[in-house]
Amino acid sequence: AQSVAQPEDQVNVAEGNPLTVKCTYSVSGNPYLFWYVQYPNRGLQFLLKYITGDNLVKGSYGFEAEFNKSQTSFHLKKPSALVSDSALYFCAASSSGGYQKVTFGTGTKLQVIP
Amino acid sequence: GAVVSQHPSRVICKSGTSVKIECRSLDFQATTMFWYRQFPKQSLMLMATSNEGSKATYEQGVEKDKFLINHASLTLSTLTVTSAHPEDSSFYICSARGRGGNNSPLHFGNGTRLTVT
Prior knowledge:
The complex is a heterodimer. Chain A is mainly beta. Chain A has strands at residues 3-5, 10-14, 19-21, 24-26, 31-38, 44-50, 56-58, 64-68, 73-78, 87-95, 103-104, 108-113. In chain B, strands 2, 4, 5, 6, 9, 10 and 11 form a 7-stranded mixed β-sheet that branches. In chain B, strands 1-3-8-7 form a 4-stranded antiparallel β-sheet, with no helix packed on it. The A-B interface holds A 32, 34, 36, 41-46, 49, 51, 90, 92, 94-97, 99-102, 104-107 and B 4, 6, 32, 34, 42-44, 46, 49, 91, 93, 95, 97, 102-103, 105-111, 113.
């Protein structure tokens, strides 16, 4: 069975500092990994994805994520946090197999402090 | 591109009535649509997966007779909450995937806040 873990319910970071939101996964076959962001009372917005190739993936709004196969991780990062980055972040995984379901982590609330 | 429109955004209904939520892919063909339920401060709970022209696949514990899903075309899926009760109050979100397969990102609607009084 697929699973995605986001070990931190909330991450607090000062504006201008680098941020990291952690994610680990477990899938059969080759993983397809995604990050989404959710603002209050809204749906999720796609940020970036890893399918294959370069382990460092760049996405929207200056976010990037690093795929680490040995640690089965896909942490979301940004060099300099903005107050407007404050939101709920979800990591998600699917696989190259026939199973079409996308599995989401439990979400991490990012709070950027001015 | 890849816009998913979901409406209504908010609905308040009385206990015992039915509510229909629409999810449309505006600029792409959605071969697969997913319906989620989100409780406050919690993750997304997948309710069902629907493929155009076939019956939806429901997750364990989701009552298919209560949450009717129809995916009649490549651009429209509907979720009908039948005989709604206060415990059905929640935030419902649809998402759609195009023809790219499992490596394509999901595109989400903005959600529907259902309140059953």
